[in-house]
Structures are given as structure tokens and as C-alpha cells.
Amino acid sequence: MSGRSCGKAAVIGAGIVGLFTAFKLREAGFEVEIYEKSVPGSGASTKNANVIHLIQPPPGKLRRVLALRGARLHRVYSSILGYRILDVPLILAATGLQESLILKMLKPLVEKVYGVKAYIVSGDRARDLEPALSDNVVSAMVIEGYGIVDSKEVISRLVKSLLENSVHIINVEAKALKAGPNIITSEGEIKGYNIVINAAGEDASRLARTLGDIIPTIKVPGLMTLHSKPRLRSIVARPPAGIKLESKGGGVIPQLDGKTLLGPTFGLRGSRGVSELRRIFNKLLSEDVGEPLKVVEGVRVIAVRGRDFKIRRSYREPHIIHLVGIESPGFTAAPSIAELVLEMAGCKKEGFNPP
Ligand SMILES: Cc1cc2nc3c(=O)[nH]c(=O)nc-3n(C[C@H](O)[C@H](O)[C@H](O)COP(=O)(O)OP(=O)(O)OC[C@H]3O[C@@H](n4cnc5c(N)ncnc54)[C@H](O)[C@@H]3O)c2cc1C
């Protein structure tokens, strides 16, 4: 394996975005080191709903473009790296006339804007497709092409492949960034990189600021609960509040281990979050989900300006690339974010040996 000819790259953060980015850079011929302050995947990347999305973000956003391509790339990487994807439909379940009308109006929009096939079905037909639906469901829109992963499995497969391909994961916190491009850590200033990628999730905005780059974000918690029942064949969610395709938030989501996930909430935490999820989604289901087996809370990092992924070079140091505001569907988009970063980093060479 050659892989030295593109120069040396540092990636800060071993979440799904940092790991896929390291993978692409290594594949292209960079020598890659990852700085991780905790353990790989300890941020949002293992505290999410495990959905490979198809149509989640509003049209016109970079998030949407990268997620659409990312969803396709995950199918490729799942066989290269050996992680599972369970293909499931999304069922948007209407429980009244107004929601049924919204679905009818949405159908052509979904097909035109996202290029996916959507079907409107009666409540009975929806129950044939998903027996866990309650009699409250009067009609539904069905969209094929969603996927479910086990995010911990994806992370561990990526880490394994990277380690086998001479990528070092250094257990050190990046304190600041400097022109050079250099990284300041508790162990001193590290020099000698040709390119530095700031993929530090919750900390990416702060790190960018240490270099004078202002990319403000807010953090919004998302609570999810895991249940032993009902067993689902599909993702079940409520229709959007209007025809703008903005989700009402969360869903009932089958997991690869057979459990059922409710959520996530948008900001609501603790026992209020747990009971709100149960109240909203029980209405769509034929049996009560009961008390959760487990409660998981993740943190969304949302870019304040324009609510979109901010993928840009530092104004001070063009060899530092910031990945800020990588909120949902960042897990889905991660492989295509990595492609974009490689294009910005600019080197394509042989020398990588994935499994
Ligand atoms: C509740 C919830 C549900 C979601 N559901 C979905 C979903 O179903 N599908 C989907 O596509 N997306 C989903 N998302 C979004 C997705 O999880 C994130 O977009 C994605 O995980 C972001 O990955 P990341 O690598 O940027 O960040 P992270 O996973 O947070 O990784 C950042 C890493 O950097 C490390 N780090 C931080 N600071 C430093 C530092 N200074 N030095 C060294 N290391 C550092 C951290 O320890 C961490 O390991 C969800 C998000 C939330 C919160």
C-alpha cells in the first residue's frame, strides 16, 4: 500500500462524519490521523434513531442533497464494510380528515421534489402493510426506500477498516486550531499536516472560533425511548403539519435488535419527554408501548444561520475545513459529506485496501 503521496491529514472527531471523512481521505492516498477526545462514536453518532433517511430535510438545503446521495452510498459501504441495512417503508399515518388531505396534497410534491414513488392507501390497506397500526389510522402515505442501521455497528466497522489501513486514532482533545494548519492539544502544538478537518460535532463551532471563524450553533436535545413492543415492519410517523414537508418530529422506528424506538423529541427532556412520546405515538399503534426499557438522549447541533450543514474552509487558513451544524440527517449524509471534503482537500490516488 502506498498512500503517502497526498500528504498528511488530521481529522478531529471520530463520529460518523469524521470516520467516513478519514476513510475517504485514506482511500485517496492521504496519511490520516484522527484526534478523538473520548471513544469513537461517543457523540451523536450512537445516540440517534438509526434511520437512513430519504426525504427528511426541506428542499433547497445542502442537508437534503447530501442525505439523498448519502443514503445511496450507505448501500455501497454496507457491503464494502460489512454493516447491515434493513430496508423499510415509511408510513405517514393520518388519523383525521385534515391529515388525509395534507397527505393527498403532499404526494405529487414528494414525487416531484424527491424523485421517489409515494402511494396513498386506505386505513385498512395501511394495517395490512403494518399490522401494528391502530384503527385510528384512516389513510396513509407509503414511501419505500428508508433504511435502518445499528449505528454502533457502522462505527465499529469503520474503525476496524481504518485501523487495518494504518489510520491512527489518537485519544487526545483538540483545544484550538491555528494557521499552519496546526492543532493545539493539551500535549502541545501539533504541526506537519497538509490539511486539517474539524469534524468535532458539538465542539466544532467552538474550535472554528479559536481560529476566528464564527459559525454559531445551538444545541437542542432529542430524547428517544426504546420499547419491547410492538414489533414493526415499517417506520411510522405522523403527516407533516402542512404541505411544506416539515416533520412534526419523530416517529415509531423498528430497530435491528427487534426493539421499537419512539422519538426523538425536539427539546423535550426527562419524564415529560417520555410521556409526550408515549401519548403522541400510542394513538397510531394497536397496542400500548408500555414503559420504556431504556431512555436515550442525543444532542442536535444546529447552525443558527440558514439551518443547514456548514462545510467550509477557514477564512484564516484554507487548509482547515470546518464541518459545523451537522444535525439530522447527518448520519445518512456522512458518506457524501466525506466525498465533498475530499474534493475540497484535493487529491485522488491509489493505495487503500478496504476489506
Ligand atoms: C436525537 C437524534 C436523533 C437522530 N437521528 C438520526 C437518524 O435517524 N438518521 C440520521 O441520518 N441522523 C440522525 N441524527 C443526526 C446524526 O446523529 C448526526 O448528524 C451525526 O451523528 C453527527 O455526526 P458527527 O460525526 O458530526 O458528530 P458526533 O457523532 O458528535 O462526533 C463528534 C466526535 O468528536 C469528538 N470530539 C468533540 N470535540 C472534540 C475535540 N475538541 N477534540 C477531539 N475530539 C472531539 C466527540 O467525542 C465525538 O466522538 C440524529 C441526531 C440526534 C441528536
- Shape, please? elongated
| CATH architecture designation of the largest domain | 2-Layer Sandwich
The domain count comes to 2
Q: What is the CATH C level class of the largest domain, in words?
A: Alpha Beta
Low-confidence stretches: none
Structural class by SSE content: alpha/beta
CATH superfamily of the largest domain: D-Amino Acid Oxidase, subunit A, domain 2
The string of secondary-structure elements, in order, is EHEEHEHEHEHEEEEEHEEEEHEEEH
Q: Compute the CA-based radius of gyration.
A: 21 Å
CATH topology label of the largest domain: D-Amino Acid Oxidase, Chain A, domain 2
Widest sheet: strand ordering: 7-2-1-11-18-17
Terminal-residue CA separation: 14 Å
- Which molecules are bound in this entry? flavin-adenine dinucleotide
DSSP strand tally: 18
Continuous helix count: 8
What number is the mean pLDDT?
Answer: 93
**Biggest sheet layout:** 6 strands, mixed
Sheet-strand content, in percent, reads 25-35%
Binned, the helix content reads 25-40%
Features:
FAD/NAD(P)-binding domain; binds flavin-adenine dinucleotide; 8 helices; D-Amino Acid Oxidase, Chain A, domain 2; 18 strands; 6-stranded mixed beta sheet; 5-stranded mixed beta sheet; alpha/beta; 2 domains; 355 residues; single chain
Q: How would you describe what is shown here?
A:
- The chain has 355 residues and is of the alpha/beta class.
- It folds into 2 domains: 148 residues, 3-Layer(bba) Sandwich (FAD/NAD(P)-binding domain), CATH 3.50.50; 149 residues, 2-Layer Sandwich (D-Amino Acid Oxidase, Chain A, domain 2).
- The chain contains 8 helices and 18 strands.
- Helix 1 packs parallel to helix 5.
- It is elongated and about 65 Å long.
- The mean pLDDT is 93.
- The chain binds flavin-adenine dinucleotide.
